[in-house]
Structures are given as C-alpha cells and as structure tokens.
Amino acid sequence: MWVDWPISETPYYELTFTFQVICTFLIGIAYVCPDVFLCVFNLHVMGQFRILQYRMLNFWNVEDKEMNAFTYIDHCYAALKKCVQHHQLLIEFCVKLDQVYTMSIFVHMAFLSVLMGLDCYEILVADTNTSIRLIFIFHITGSLIHLFVFTYTCHFMMEESTNVTRTIYSGSWSTLPMYKTGRSLRSDIRFIMIRSLKPCCLTAGGFFPVSLETFTSLLSSTFSYFTLMRESLIRTEGE
Question: What is the mean pLDDT of the chain?
Fold first, then answer.
C-alpha cells in the first residue's frame, strides 16, 4: 500500500496487516467459491443421473409369483413414468444452472486464458528474479488445476446425461407383450432415448459447451497469446 503512514510502526503495521488479510480472504472467496459451488452442483447432477440410470435398469427386476404378464407390464409402465418425471426435473435443473452461470463461465475462461498467457510470458521470456518467477509458476499451476477440475465435472455431467440412452435400451422392454400398454412403453422409451442423445451441458455465454475439449482449447489459446507476445517482443527488440 502506497500511503504516507509509518506502516512499519505500531499500531499502523498491525492495522495494515489486518486490513490486507481481510481483503485477501474476501478476494479468495469471491474468486474460488462460485466455481466450487458450480462443481458441487455438477457432482450432484452426475449423482442424480446415475441414480436415474440405476432405477431404469432395475425396475424390470420384479419377483412376484402372483404377477402375470399384464400386471408386470403395468408395473413397468408406472415405474417408467416416474423415471421420465425424474429425467425431466434433471433437464430443467441443468437448464436453470446454465442460465445462472453461462456468462460468469465465459468471462472467467476468457480472463483465465489471458492470465495464463501472461504467466507463461513472465516465466519463460521476461527478465525477472527467481522469486517472481516462482510466484507465476505457482499461479499458472493453480489456474490449470482449477480449470481442469471445473471442465472435468462439466464433461462428466454431459456423459452421464447421455448414458441414459444406453441404460434404458439395456432393459427388458423387448420381452413385453405387444398390446396397448406395451406399445406405449416402447414409444416412451424411444422418446427418452432421442432426448438423451442431446447432452445436458453448461455453456460459456451460449457459444460452446464446457467439457474437457474446452480445457485443451483454452490451453491452445493460452499458448497462442504467449507466442503473440513473444513475437511482438522479438520484433520490438529487432527494430
């Protein structure tokens, strides 16, 4: 802090130190917590999709000696309706989650890419001392871990939402009799499979879905920024 106070003396030193610690704590919360909450939401959705897949895969396994074929198919159809309702709730939750976070994801990724490009410049090109270079190394390492964890949870949320297609197809629907309820059940399964082919995902400003491919694309953009800054420096020194 550039002030005219004697900050190396008591009580200004203690007050300044306390103020800086509080500011650092608040900045850390504002920087990390939104993404942490989003990762928790992603993990929650992943778990819900796996629960849905478990229900879809196991509601066919009913052992009841008094249950005939028609009662069995009515039971399966009722269980399938509950699974459809669960699936619709998860899709609606993912849509609302995307609406809340889409712009923050886009801004965060754009700034993160620029910051990592500047980190690479300070580490590899700039003439700085060892302590400053270590600071930027730790910063780019933390940014990479942060970005990987975030894109990892988004990617597997997409995968779990599309796995519903394979799970519902693996059921025992092909052995059911072809009367009205049986045809309705097969039709509903077909619609579930068609809808599940479109993954539930989070987008960055509505431009592209966030996945592990986004992680590699962002790394490519980072190195592109670094190369551009390096070429500009070489050209300036050459002139």
Answer: 81
